[in-house]
Design brief:
By secondary structure, the protein is α+β, with helices and mostly antiparallel strands. The chain has two domains: about 120 residues, Diaminopimelate Epimerase, Chain A, domain 1, CATH 3.10.310.10; about 120 residues, Roll (Diaminopimelate Epimerase, Chain A, domain 1). Helices cover about 20% and strands about 45% of the residues. The protein has four helices and 17 strands. The radius of gyration is 17 Å and the shape is globular. The mean pLDDT is about 100. The chain binds 2,6-diaminopimelic acid. 2,6-diaminopimelic acid binds next to helix 2 and helix 4. It is found in: Cytoplasm. Belongs to the diaminopimelate epimerase family. Pathway: Amino-acid biosynthesis; L-lysine biosynthesis via DAP pathway; DL-2,6-diaminopimelate from LL-2,6-diaminopimelate: step 1/1. InterPro entries: DAP_epimerase_DapF (IPR001653). Its main location: cytoplasm.
């Protein structure tokens, strides 16, 4: 079976064309092994591109621990690039993911991915929490470079407040009046990743609501730059949310395990 490796701002994924439905998707240990950086290909997650009768394709996303995850924004941009590379559409696409319908547009090196609407930004035991397709805590701090993202993120991820599912944890530092630097501890990878698409989306919306940062918000991550545009609604919801940034094929290979 062939596989492809893609990355979006350093969030890296194994992509498999599973339109024939042959991939053993229920074998969690196998997916985990493929994502392992010593025993496998190495990736933050694995994504299947499957057929769907009503859409250009369907995205099935697994975290590096082999379990099916909630929505993945960078993975969403990568599978759009993959579908484009496979010739499934020319400029605009409509696909199905775990959180429902998404549309996306190819803009040169960038993919603009429409994210699910956000119902509001809440407070859970003093922590800012929202769901952008995946659950995210957002915390603004002053010196993000020297911050212990793994220790602090893990404490939030496993705190009783967010059980049983847990949450992703994002730490953000304001760079200027429209730019934020973000580092994320990802559930399911159980480590800091170079970038998290649903996470930076969450940070942008919180930066708008709490710090009046205007649309669009520019985001810096360890793996590169993203932009998030959105429409704030009067009832606290956000619509027309777009995550915009690069997504690239890195290599292709043949599975021998
Ligand atoms: N890397 C992903 C997030 C995956 C979500 C996953 N960590 C979970 O909560 O299941 C992104 O770009 O949005």
């Amino acid at each position: 079976m062939n596989f492809f490796k893609y990355q979006g701002t350093g969030n890296d994924f194994i992509l498999i064309d599973d339109r024939d439905g042959q991939f053993p998707a229920t074998d969690q240990a196998y997916v985990e092994r493929l994502c392992h950086r010593r025993f496998g290909i190495g990736a933050d997650g694995l994504i299947l591109l499957q057929n769907d009768p009503d859409y250009d394709f369907k995205m099935v996303y697994f975290n590096a621990d082999g379990a099916e995850g909630s929505m993945c924004g960078n993975g969403g941009r990568c599978i759009v690039r993959f579908a484009h590379d496979l010739g499934l559409f020319e400029r605009e696409t409509r696909f199905l993911a775990v959180d429902g319908e998404h549309t996306a547009v190819v803009l040169g090196d960038d993919i603009s991915l429409k994210m699910t609407n956000v119902t509001g930004i809440g407070d859970r035991d003093g922590l800012t929490f929202l769901n952008t397709g995946s659950p995210h805590v957002v915390q603004f701090i002053d010196d993000l470079e020297s911050f212990d993202v793994v220790a602090e993120g893990r404490a939030i991820r496993y705190s009783s407040t967010f059980q049983p599912g847990g949450t992703n944890a994002n730490f953000a530092q304001v760079i200027d009046d429209h730019t934020v630097f973000v580092r994320t501890y990802e559930r399911g990878v159980e480590d800091e990743t170079y970038s998290c698409g649903t996470g930076v989306t969450a940070v942008a919306l919180v930066a708008h609501q709490q710090l009046t940062m205007p649309d669009p918000v520019s985001i810096q991550t360890i793996g590169g730059n993203l932009r998030v545009s959105f429409s704030p609604e009067s009832d606290g919801r956000f619509t027309a949310i777009h995550l915009i940034g690069p997504a690239k094929r890195v290599y292709e290979g043949v599975l021998t395990i």
